[in-house]
Amino acid sequence: MLARLDPTDITLLTVLQTEGRISNAELAERIGLSASACLRRVQRLESEGVIAGYAALVDGKRIGLGLEAFVRVQLRDHSSAVVDAFVARVQHWEDVIACHALTGEMDYLLHVMVEDLEHFSRFLLDRLLNDAGVADVNSSFVLREIKPRRALPLAHLAGT
């Protein structure tokens, strides 16, 4: 079910997506509400699941995660047992920071961050290719990040 958002909600979300640590008082002032009205809106958006959580954006390179890759995975079959087992295992692979089910030739896209090529090789050979459900893997290494994912586009909501 889509949440019903008014222009004030959209402005509030726009600010929070880029300034997640802003105080409620400053947020309220920026969007033209009292602090209590602003807090009620934030709490409503949280309870409705529109605001899914808060997190710090950590620079992987500064903590030793110097190799980033996207790995396309094709499963050997699409039985619920194979799919469920693969999905369950991916949940425990710390090197996989995101996983998406896809349409097309490959079934999943894994976003992987590791220390270096040796670490990636261990992940690929010992974990991913060793998985009984995996039929094919294709990896691409990130050379440079052009536009990081930060905020979701909200402009389409302006007409709601």
What does this structure look like?
The structure is a single chain. With 160 residues, the protein is of the alpha+beta class. The protein has two domains: 50 residues, Winged helix-like DNA-binding domain superfamily/Winged helix DNA-binding domain (Arc Repressor Mutant, subunit A); 82 residues, Alpha-Beta Plaits (2-Layer Sandwich). Helices cover 35% and strands 19% of the residues. The chain has five helices and four strands. A four-stranded antiparallel beta sheet has the order 2-3-1-4. α2 crosses α3. It starts with 6 loop residues before the first helix and ends in a 19-residue tail after the last strand. The mean pLDDT is 94.
A few lines on this structure:
By secondary structure, the chain is α+β, with helices and mostly antiparallel strands. The chain is built from five helices and four strands.
CATH superfamily (homologous) name of the largest domain:
Lrp/AsnC effector binding domain/regulation of amino acid metabolism (RAM) domain
Describe the strand arrangement of the main beta sheet, using strand numbers: 2-3-1-4
N- and C-termini, Cα separation: 14 Å
> Could you spell the SSE succession in H and E letters?
HHHEHEEHE
What is the radius of gyration? 20 Å
Q: Show unreliable segments.
A: none
Give the domain tally: 2
Please outline the major beta sheet. Answer: 4 strands, antiparallel
Features:
elongated, 2 domains, Arc Repressor Mutant, subunit A, alpha+beta, 160 residues, Alpha-Beta Plaits, 19% strand
Task: List the topology elements.
Layout: H1 7-18, H2 24-31, H3 35-47, E1 67-75, H4 80-90, E2 96-101, E3 108-114, H5 117-128, E4 134-141
Antiparallel strand pairs: 1-3, 1-4, 2-3
